[in-house]
Amino acid sequence: MYPTLSDLIFDLTGISIPLPIQSFGLILALSFFLCAYTLSIELKRKEKLGLLRPASKKVLKGAPASTTDLLISAVFGFVLGFKLLYIIFHYREFVDDTQGVMLSMLGSWPGGIICGALFSYLKYAEKKKEQKEVPVWEEETIHPYELVGNLTMVAAVWGLLGAKLFHNLENLDEFATDPWGALFSFSGLTFYGGLICGAVGVILYGRKYQIGALHLCDATAPGLMLAYAVGRLGCQISGDGDWGIVNLAPKPSWLQWLPDWMWSYNYPHNVNSVGIPIPGCTGKHCMMLPEPVYPTPIYEVIMGMIIFFILWKIRHRILVPGVLFCVYLILNGMERFLIEQIRVNTKYHVLGYAITQAEIISISLVLTGIIGVVVLRKKSKPEGHG
């Protein structure tokens, strides 16, 4: 496992370069970029087909910097300087405990004050340069694809909040033991929580610019699946705990071509330091699972990529708005329900059956997708036609 980018570089080159970059975080950022890229392609395609139209927005040009502008710049600059100067002078501490330093009150007050004042002045100077004798309102045209950056940020913020919320609801015992750590740690994210909350945030933001919810959902569907697959690659590489149940069964003869680690793996050097000590290992991340498990993240990478290519291939052929997203819900729900059969997760007891939160949601997504396809296709047919 490679919990950090430094671990990967050392394994490949033998050179130790202390970098405060978590491998999961890096790959998660890549997944957001790929999702944004595919979304941009789809929004441009839909606008070209006349399915989406640009929105107009009135903007005040030539006005001096407002108190709010200066205050926001000052706060942003203060936080940046407060942390950055401390990190520069305590770099080793930052590398050893990146999360702890970032979420603590450790920082440099002089650095924060200087940087805050500088950012506030730069905002003032920027507005002063553009200032007109009489500010005027101008109408700007905004194309849907120009909003991809903002949509991605909304999805990231709402998605991460939702992923945290659902994870803590699923693991109330952990939350009760350490509420602060449960809320602000970089581990412990539930995909479906992120999907649901992220989707709500994106739809609400899209409505501000008259982007139809169904077309927006369709445009995001392939990218969501691609981001999920890439994100699971981060889970596999870092060993973040999203693995399967214990697998002591011998590899079947028909799977002999498969590498052993893809059948059963004990996740050495996992980022959560879970398991038993690795003989001869010193330093951080020196634990491995006592018994090998199914490496479910890599299975989800494979299935996620297959579903992405299916959605990308059929997106031109599905003409009814919203149906592509419903197909995504069906395929995504089926994939997750299947993987839950060999994945470690908290189980609830409902009507005498043991079921996980992800199974409940995945079944709901499949049913929602099926109902959505039927309803949307029925509504798209002219009255009097079968």
How would you characterize the overall build of this protein?
60% of the residues lie in helices and 7% in strands. The radius of gyration is 24 Å and the shape is globular. The termini are far apart. A hairpin with a 2-residue loop joins strand 5 (347-350) and strand 6 (353-356). The model has no long low-confidence stretch (mean pLDDT 88). The chain folds into 2 domains: 5-58 and 140-380, no CATH class; 64-131, no CATH class. The strands form 3 sheets. Strands 1-2 form a two-stranded antiparallel ribbon. A two-stranded antiparallel sheet has the order 3-4. With 386 residues, the protein is mainly α. Helix 2 (23-48) packs antiparallel against helix 11 (213-238) and helix 11 (213-238) runs parallel beside helix 13 (323-340).
Topology readout:
Layout: H1 5-13, H2 23-48, E1 55-61, H3 67-89, H4 91-96, H5 98-102, H6 109-130, E2 136-142, H7 148-170, H8 172-177, H9 179-184, H10 191-208, H11 213-238, E3 276-277, E4 287-288, H12 296-314, H13 323-340, E5 347-350, E6 353-356, H14 357-380
Antiparallel strand pairs: 1-2, 3-4, 5-6
Helix pairs in contact: 2-7, 2-11, 3-6, 7-10, 10-11, 11-12, 11-13, 12-13, 13-14
The parts where pLDDT drops under 50 for at least 5 residues are none
Enumerate the strands of the largest sheet in spatial order, edge to edge or round the barrel. 1-2
Q: What is the terminal separation in angstroms?
A: 56 Å
Q: Tell me the number of strands.
A: 6
Mean pLDDT over the full residue set: 88
Radius of gyration: 24 Å
- Helix fraction? 55-70%
Total helical segments: 14
Helices and strands, in N-to-C order? Answer: HHEHHHHEHHHHHEEHHEEH
Secondary-structure content class: mainly alpha
Q: Write down the overall geometry.
A: globular
Biggest sheet overview: 2 strands, antiparallel
The domain tally reads 2
Q: Kindly estimate the percentage of residues that lie in beta strands according to DSSP.
A: 5-15%
